[in-house]
Amino acid sequence: MLTLVYRSDAAVLLPHSTLSDLCFQSAAKNRRLGITGFLVEHEGTFLQVLEGEPRDVERLFDRIVTDGRHQNVSILSHEISRDERTFGFWSMNFGPLSDPDFWTGEFADFRGRKEFRIKSHSANFALRVLTRAYTHACILTDADPVIGDYVRGKRPVLAGQPEPV
């Protein structure tokens, strides 16, 4: 299993509705390829994690690199393991970071575009952002039935929560 984390800058800022549509299209393609992942965007900076068979993830990433909607694409983490997927709940989902509660605690100083963009080059920071946004999105699945169409795996068990039925 390959877990690949990358960051990029938007060539042109896209509205949330366009980003959501792209995510839904990607979810269908990723499901067929056996790839899972999660994407966040903040003020034109993208962070994304992709997980799956190495050859499949690398082919998908090659297409992402040549996509004209991205620029300054850089790999932050490229790890092969035999472990279970960390971001395996969806074939793809999108976390817009629009919830003010996200920007508390360790992320309070990074809400501004410049601060976030600078810090987004750190693999450790990117994984913390992706993990927190992913966890929040997992909780929201109970509230929005449309999200269920993009679920690939079982809901993760978060600390202090009972096992889902």
Features:
about 160 residues; alpha+beta; Alpha-Beta Plaits; 5-stranded mixed β-sheet; about 35% helix; globular; disordered C terminus; BLUF_domain; FAD binding
Description:
Pfam families: BLUF. This is BLUF domain-containing protein. One of its GO terms (molecular function) is FAD binding. With about 160 residues, the chain is α+β, with helices and mostly antiparallel strands. It has one domain: Alpha-Beta Plaits, CATH 3.30.70.100. The chain has 4 helices and 5 strands; from the N terminus they run E-H-E-E-H-E-E-H-H. The chain has a 5-stranded mixed sheet, with helices on both faces. The longest helix is centred in the N-terminal third of the chain and has 18 residues, at about 15-35. The protein is globular, with a radius of gyration of 15 Å. The two termini are about 25 Å apart. The relative contact order is 0.21.
Short description:
This protein is α+β, with helices and mostly antiparallel strands. It is 33% helix and 22% strand. Strand 2 and strand 3 (45-52) form a beta hairpin.
Number of domains: 1
Number of strands: 5
pLDDT averaged residue by residue:
83
CATH names the topology as: Alpha-Beta Plaits
User: How many separate helices?
Assistant: 4
Largest sheet: 5 strands, mixed
Shape: globular
Radius of gyration: 15 Å
In which order are the strands of the major sheet placed?
A: 4-1-3-2-5
Which runs of at least 5 residues are low in confidence (pLDDT < 50)? Answer: 154-165
- Kindly estimate the percentage of residues that lie in beta strands according to DSSP: 15-25%
Helices and strands, in order, run as EHEEHEEHH
Report how far apart the termini are. 27 Å
> In CATH, what is the class?
Alpha Beta
Structural class by helix and strand composition? alpha+beta
Q: Can you name the CATH architecture?
A: 2-Layer Sandwich
Estimated helix fraction: 25-40%
